Amino acid sequence: MAISFELNGKEVSADVEPDTPLLWVLRDHFKLTGTKFGCGIAQCGACTVHLNGLTRRSCITPISQVDGGTVTTIEGVSGEEARAIQDAWVALDVPQCGFCQSGQVMSATALLREIPKPTDENIDQAMAGNICRCATYVRIRKAIHRASDSMEG
Amino acid sequence: MKRIVIAIGCAALVSLGLCLKIGTAIAADSEAAKAQTLQSPEDFANIRDESKRSVAMFNEMGKVLTHPRCVSCHPRGDSPLQGMDLHKHEPPIVRGAGGMGAPGMRCSTCHGDDNVAFSTEEGSIPGHPGWRLAPKSMAWEGKSLGEICRQLKDQDRSHMTLEELQKHNATDGLVGWGWHPGEGRIPVPGTQKIFGELTQAWIDTGAVCPEG
Residues 57..96 of B with a Cβ closer than 8 Å to A: which? Predict the structure, then answer.
């Protein structure tokens, strides 16, 4: 079954079974391996992408639910918030092993798009589903504040 | 993940015996829930007193109203619950605007339009297009059936008239999910059709609430 959607700004199509997880399609079909497989049951957040502008765990998203939609992965995320997050991540050396970080960045970027000046509580609520086994949570929170401070407005 | 959490919890309790007892109790509750049925209004025809019949039918509706599939999203706090033991939702998520979660992590971050079977293990993640928490004014967690009943009828607290409530119970898709919760979850007893008929019959007999 051919599923068509916008992926990182380009119209794409994939001929796959409708229940194939979006994560499988991203990694195996389109070779976009920045999005990671962590748990496979929407518990860790490593597979987070943006679907129609909102965070979405790609490991439990059947590709049939993506048909006609817009998907952004870590390879394609852009704009002021994404740049600010990337700069802050580099400045504070946020990642340790790095496996969860693409999911962290996708959730953090989505947060700043909706709440440009988030409180600690906003950050904790938005990031609660992104687990980091290196426990970089303190740097993540600090980096989100730094990204927020660096943005205009 | 759930197995890991249970294992860690059990280790913390030190006593393996206690864990086994808890596990057995949860399993017994689940078996009891599976065996539940839902009687239809006709099954109450032999109760001649209309008020008593009304109460009896609401008590029957209570099998649905207080079922974990329904109470999970009618919590008294700001987080949904999970499982037959109504433990706190993992990953942590808050009510947020409209009961749909917080910016950056909404219900829809994980819950799609349908139940989705996991690709790598048994079980599924539940889904429905309207996935969200019930309004806080409709919190049922920890309340008696009488309290839930009076809450439903109180127009200062309820956002629905009794007519709207009947329609909600009989036809709402998210309510209906309770009978089709996906692999790994025990459905609420009976059918949505019977639940709707019970609600109508309860209203027609005066919508009398149980005491307590």
Answer: 90-94, 96
pLDDT at A3 over 60: yes
Domain endpoint, select from A72, A100, A117: A72
pTM for this prediction? 0.88
Given a cut of 80, whether residue B22 has pLDDT beyond it is no
Smallest Cα–Cα separation from B174: which of B121, B135, B200, B119? Answer: B135
| ipTM score assigned to the predicted complex | 0.96
The enclosing domain of A43 has a CATH number of: 3.10.20.30
| CB-based contact A42 B125, cutoff 8 Å | yes
Contacts of A54 in chain B (CB under 8 A): 106, 108-109
Residue A66 structural domain: 2-72
Q: Which residues contact A103 (CB under 8 A, 6 or more apart)?
A: A35, A36, A38, A44, A45, A46, A47, A48, A130
* CATH assignment at residue A106: 1.10.150.120
Test mutation, B89, B119, B122, B131, chain A, max A CBs within 10 A: B119
The answer on pLDDT for A2 being more than 60 is yes
